[in-house]
Structures are given as structure tokens and as C-alpha cells.
Amino acid sequence: MRFFSYIGAIAVALSLSACADESPSNEAVSADALALQAHLEFLASDDLEGRDTGSRGHEIAAKYIAAKFKSLGLEPAGDDGTYFQRIKFRRSFLEENSASFTLNTGEDEISLDYPKEFITGPSAYSEEDDVEAPLVFVGYGLVSEAFGINDYEGLDVEGKIVVMVSGRPEELPSEEGAHLNSSKTKFAAERGAVGIINLHTPAREKVRPFEVSVMYQRAPSVRWLHPNGEPNVAFKNIAASAYVQHEAAEKLFVNAPVQLEEIFAQLEAGESPKGFDLGVSARLQRASRHEEISSPNVAAVLPGSDDKLKNEYVLYTAHSDHIGMTKDLSQDDHINNGAMDNASGVSVMLETARMFKESGQQPKRSIMFLSITAEERGLLGADYFAHHPTVPLSQIVANVNLDMPVLLYDFADVIAFGSTHSTLGDTVARAAGQLGIDLSEDPMPEQAIFTRSDHYPFVKKGVPAVFLMTGFTSKTEGEDGGEVWGEFFAEHYHRPSDQPDLPINYEAGVTFTNINFAIGQEIANQVERPRWLPESFFSQLD
Known about the structure:
Blueprint: H1 33-43, H2 56-71, E1 75-76, E2 84-94, E3 100-104, E4 109-112, E5 118-119, E6 128-137, E7 143-144, E8 149-150, E9 161-165, H3 174-181, H4 184-190, E10 195-199, H5 202-207, H6 210-215, E11 221-224, E12 240-244, H7 260-268, E13 276-302, E14 313-319, H8 339-358, E15 366-372, H9 380-387, E16 396-402, E17 413-417, H10 424-433, E18 438-440, H11 456-459, E19 465-470, H12 481-491, H13 506-525
Parallel strand pairs: 6-9, 9-10, 10-12, 14-15, 14-16, 16-19, 17-18
Antiparallel strand pairs: 1-13, 2-11, 2-13, 3-4, 3-13, 5-12, 6-13, 7-8, 13-15, 17-19
Helix pairs in contact: 1-8, 1-13, 8-13, 10-13
């Protein structure tokens, strides 16, 4: 799972109840704790070396998952009659000492120091970039008719480099704001910009110092390739980029009608700054090199029984990749096993598949199980499938995503990120209620987790989705589930200690899997397909 900041553990319980379409009884089938343990211990074993995208360890994991699908008698749903959807990726590296940033004020040329004053990343599209253009400040760089925002209003950015402050206005709801924040490149490209300069801010410095970003500067970027070999670069006209340290950014405003100090004061006061021409130009240069890797999604289908509804699909997803080996030589253990992230989610999905197959009650709609690669690299495997689905995307009625269920305590509630945006919220509440488990509100809305796992590419394509996670309330007297969850995140997340010797509660895994199965049963058998709530921002995405 792709979290970036420490998450406080505060749970708010919300009990939901509603009338449901009649669903089959779950009494005849249940998840098996030993099966969950067997899957998890294999997928998170040292032999798989952290399951990094494109690695031998992840290939083994993918073959294991495909073998389990085959043993259940599920139909292949990958490419060419196989269980595998093989994806090619381009890994891009910034060439050493190739990045430069020269500012032309009309009177002087000023060079910014890399990486002390600015950083940049490689291009996934070209090997050499050299862009010179006037600079235009565009505030946050956001556009939203729903929220009455247009930071480009009255500005001509055609053929220019836009300069924007990082982040988004505080008054925006977290999930909607996160989606808009991720669309900044789109907004700039649609208006003809040729480059983007993001400004680090004093507020951001307090949360994540600029030096921390510099530490990750040498990491390659990864993009998936279309079948024709083209990288998934939607906005090729954006040929230059930079992230500028907040003090160094003052140099960009030497001829500006409003100085940067005033802009930062506006941000501090909760105001959204207006845009203007900066009266300077900049030349941004870089060189990139590319290499290709490949890695598979693994897909299988249990066909539905209804003559009409079998052509619709309930999609379960869980990412099988993790972050591989650590380069921290101060540690004896270098393998990031990813037991909770996300061997636990894949194990739950495999047991859910077995339950559907062995329940004796074939669902009306078809059920697709999709093990996804490259989640840790930016939701890439899910995004590829959303662009190149092996079944018509319009026939996928819902996505239930499993990512990092923390099975370390006897949870009394579940969290379903996205449950307030579609009718799936009621479905989850009913399914959990069958097992005496509550559905709780998102305890960390500021993290905008609904935009940060593999369901999100499907959401952007119009598919209603929920991301299911263990809640923060424990059934065990005196135990704070949120505290256990928070301790895992602080001490084990994306570290070698996320391994099978954690005190994993496989009986809690049984409960979680049974809920997951019940969710899919209701979706697969109800008359109407799930739908977005009309007031949801995500119901109106392009």
C-alpha cells in the first residue's frame, strides 16, 4: 500500500442498517485459517525476496496465484487464453549531472543549484529535453467546475512554463482535493503549457523537508507501455519539470507584481493566490535513459449462472507486488517481505475465490479475481488493466479492493474507503453485520486513502469501488485496535519486519474473508448493479 505519512489511529464507529436484496446464506461455507496462513507464509517468504515489480520473486508469486486459480477450476482471464496479463514497463533514470535550471530576468541569468535548490525527474518519453519559455504563476494550478475553481482564468499559458505552489486549498474535501491535486499536469497540458515548476512551501517544509525529497532523487520512475510500445505519457507537451526549494523560489519572483513572501502569507491565511505573468523566462534541461522490464497481472473468472447477468463482472483486486530488497546496509535483514502489505490481501482474495467455487451456489453475475502488479510503483498494474481490460470495462459493475488488511487483532469493525460515494456502502454494512461487525467511518480522512490504492484507476473510469480494511476497534477487552494498527504502520510498514513472524491473527482473517465473500455475493446476485450516489464528486468524473 502506498501511504506517505504517519497515520494517527482514531476510530469513530458508525452502525449502518438497510434492507437488502435477498442473498444466499453463508452458513455452508467459511474461510479457512490454515489456508490463509499457508498462502501468506509462501507469498511473504524470504525466497520471494520482497516481490518487487519485474523481479524473479514476483514472477514466482504470480505463478503461485495462477496455479491456485487453476486448481479451483476458474477460467483464465488474462491474455491469449492464459491467466497472465503481461505488462511491459519503462524504467527511466535521470542521467548524472544533466539537470540544469537557468533563469533569465531580462537583465541577468541566474542558475539554480541542483539538487540544493531544485530537483527534477527523468522523462519517460524522451532522452533529451531542452525547454526555454516564459514563466506564468497559476496559484495552486487547479480547475474544478464542481468547486468553482479556475486558477487559469485570465491567463495565457500556451507555450509557457507554469509555476504553481504544491498542495491544494484546505477547504477542499480530502478525497476530492487529492483527486484534483493529482490532475494538475492534466490541467496545465490542456491549456498548452510546455513545462511545470512546483514550489515547495514553508508549510510543506514542516511536514516533509525539501532534503527528504532530495534523498529519493536518484530513484527511477516507472511507466507502463501500451502494446504498441508507447509509454503511458498522456501529456507529451509537458517536456520540462522542476521542484524548487521555497527559499530559492524567491528568484523566480524578482520581476513579479506580487512577491513570493506575500504568496506564502496568503497560503498561511488559508487564501488561494491569484495567477499572473512572472516577467521572467527559464531554460530547463535534462537527459534521461530508459530500460524495459515486464511483470504480470494475474486474472481469473468464475462465470455467472444468469443468462443475462453473467456478462457483468464483480471485480476483486489485491496487489501481489511489494518493494523488494532494502539497500540500508545498517540492517541485517534486507528483505521487505510484505506480509501485511499485501500478502494478507492476496491470501484473503484466494480464499474468497475458493469460497465462491465451493459454496455450491453459483452467483448470477461473473466474479473476476485480479492479482495486480506494480501497485507500489504508482498503481501501474491496475491502471494498465483499466486502460486495457480483458473484459469490457463497462461490464465491470463494482470493484472490491483488498490492500493491507492488518490482521494483528480481533477487529470489531471494518472501514470501507469509498463507502460514502456509492451504494456499495450499504452492501458492506449488511455483509459485515451478518458477522456482527460494524462499518465505521473513515478514521483518517485527511489521508484521502480512497485515491491511493488499486481501486482508484477503476474509479476514474466510472466503476463504483470500495477499499476494505480492518477497523480500529478491537473485540479484546483493554486492546486498542487503532493503536495496534498505528504501531504496525510506525514500526513495520515498508520494512523487513513486515514478515510472517508477526503475531498474525488468522481467525480475524477468517472473519475478514467471510465479510469479503458476503460483499461479493450480494453484488453478484442483486437485481440492480451498484451505482454512484448522485451527490458524489466521483460520479461526475470524465
